[in-house]
Every structure is written in structure tokens, then in C-alpha cells.
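Reminder: ligand-aware prediction takes two inputs, not one.
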Amino acid sequence: MQEYILKGVVLKAIDLKEKDKLLTIYTLERGLVSASLRGVRQQKSKLKFAAQPLCFAEFSLVGDKDIVTCTNASEIESFFAVTSNYDVLVLAGAMCEMIYLTAIKESNVDLFISLVRALGGLCNEAINPDVVFIKFCLQFFKCMGYKLNFDTCKNCGNDFNEDCCLDLNSGAIVCKSCATLNSVIISKQCFKLLNIIDGLQFANLSSIKINDAQATECKTVLIKNFNALFDKNLKSIKV
Ligand SMILES: [Zn+2]
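Here is what comes back for the chain with zinc ion:
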């Protein structure tokens, strides 16, 4: 059978049979792929690195069924630094979970690039990890067709002059007068931060200074939006 190569990040790796692992890989070319990695739990296996969540590699695969077989892997980049800090690891886990819960077997190049840049950002000590996570969430919504609007109220078109709201039915930012019961308040400061972070590249996020309370408000708004839009309940970070 023809072997093919996909670039991807391992989101999940669970034990399979006696010596194998079942990987869920988010790939650049085909979105989510399930692949078995045979014998990887044996002492002498050279592919143990490929069975670690967050491994970013080129995977050699065979098969065309729901679960394909991984025959080889070569690492592109290690995001191992993420594991040195529990809080950062939780953020990386939440990003992987967001993709795992919503991605399909279809390529989404921008989302893939955002994931890789965000994981790289979490390894960069010059950048506040919460800011990286906030940027990833904003990119995630954009890549999934729910880009947040920061210019005017999505409903009435008025400018935002005071606290506004995120309408959880539509995933759009609206002014207070247009808010429905199913919406969450965004403070002026949180709105400003989200707007600035939205306009920056991952590489430029080190310029953003944010305190814990601000980070918590931004993350809460974004995760509530994720849970409502996709009818999911993110387990990695509870809000
Ligand atoms: Zn309005």
C-alpha cells in the first residue's frame, strides 16, 4: 500500500492493545487523523517521541480506513518546554482540546498554523502564556468562521463607547442595548485587550502586559463563547 507523509501535531495518545498507541493527530493536509503506532510501548521503540501529545512531526502513514497505521515519524519541532510549567501545560491542553472537539477530517491551513504558532509562543518565556492562549482563541474563532467584530455592534451598528456584551447565541459582540439574556459582559478594559491582541501577530505578543484578573476575564469570555458556539464543555479550563 502507498505510504504518504502528513505534517501534524499529536493531540492525544491512548494505549491500544498490549504494545501500541492510538494517536489523534491534527494534520496540515487532512485535519484530524487517527493513527496506530505499533510497538511504541516497547522499551526499544525509536518512535516513543511521536506518541507524546504536542509532538509536531512528519508522519509516514499507510492505509485509507478510519484508523491508519503510522510507520515512521520525524520531528519538526519540539514543544517540550511547555511541559515545564503546569499552568502553561493546561493552556496547551485546552488548545488541543478545542481542536479535538471541533475539527474534522478536512484541512484548515490557517487553524493548523495558528496551533503551531501558539504552541511556539507558549515555549517563549518573553510572552505571557495567557496572552498566547487569548490570541489562539481569537484565531480559532476566525478560522472556524466566527471572527469577533470589534468595530461596531453587530446588531445595530453603533460604536462601542462603554462596556459591551458577547452574544452567546451568535458569537458576536453587541452593545449593551442589544444584548440578549444569553450574553456575557465584556468590560471596557477586556474589550480593549482583546481588540489589541486580535490585531497582533503571535511573534509580537511579548509587548502585551496583562494582569491575572484581566487574563481571567478575557479567557472566561472566550471559553464561554467556545462552549456556546460549538455546544461543548471544555474540560481543560472550566469557566
Ligand atoms: Zn447594538
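Residues 153, 155-156, 158, 174-175, 177-178 surround zinc ion (CB under 6 Å). The two ends are 47 Å apart (CA to CA). We will return to this case in the review session.
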